[in-house]
Structure prediction request, 341 residues.
Amino acid sequence: MGYRVAVVGATGNVGREMLATLAEREFPLDEVVAVASSRSTGTEVEFGESGKTLKCKNLEHFDFTGFDIALFSAGSGPSKEFAPKAAAAGCVVIDNSSLYRMDPDVPLVVPEVNPEAIDGYAKRNIIANPNCSTAQMVVALKPLHDAATIKRVVVSTYQSVSGAGKAGMDELFEQSRAIFVGDAVGVNKFTKQIAFNVIPHIDVFMDDGSTKEEWKMVVETKKILDPKIKVNATCVRVPVFVGHSESINIEFEKELSAEQAMEILREAPGVMLIDKREDGGYVTPIECVGDGATFISRVREDPTVDSGLSLWCVSDNLLKGAALNAVQIAELLGRRHLKKG
Prediction:
């Protein structure tokens, strides 16, 4: 006996990945329904490799009664309006937007890091999926924190344009093409030209000079991993289509050598350590696409503090940063609370 699952925002990058991930991981389904905005009603989306397609149903008129789980990836506006309606109908919402992440009554879950947090889902019948850049970082930090207790993290991100949706990917493609053929370069989605450039600005600016993306990494890491960890983030958009990269510097309370850290990371759930210390002996974003792992390379000791490490972290932001983590939450929810059969 399987679950009835609705994927909301099924025509977007992440929604399509959610459907692909449900099929790939053979999530136990009795029924899966694609749901989207009124302008996408009737649009066909693929489900699985068999060529099966689903016709999108209109979110405004969709009845969530009888559905077990709804995977939302439609943005904060639709989540604000429709997630509570789905939850009230008895359907557990797993929301990919930022709307509910810091709600004290909504668990913010990365299954490899804080699976026990999911037990609080029933307060609102909503579970939040973290920010893409936070998700991969906490997967890398968790086993090291367990071993030596992290005091402080300084992270610089190199985030792909797919984090800004299809419009971001289209803009990188169109600008690159325009440059090659000598056409004028249009800037619409991003604040400056993204092709052959980097932009140290993701989301809106806040009063202290940080951006909201940077704030998300700080507060979400504290909620998921440990409120005592100090985090400083600089988030940068780079001309990469898919795959977020992060340069992470970590300060620990206890001594932890690079060799010890690598031994820990080799056994850590969700982590793939590739650190050969030679030309090409590390992972770049183009190599992580389509893989659910969080890849770690360049692990080395930081001589400027008593106990510190630096490392390089890469992950497919559409998978572990969004769709895969949501499906893993659904799997965890099934194992712990919504058992079938």
Q: What stands out?
A: The first strand starts at residue 3 and ends at 8.
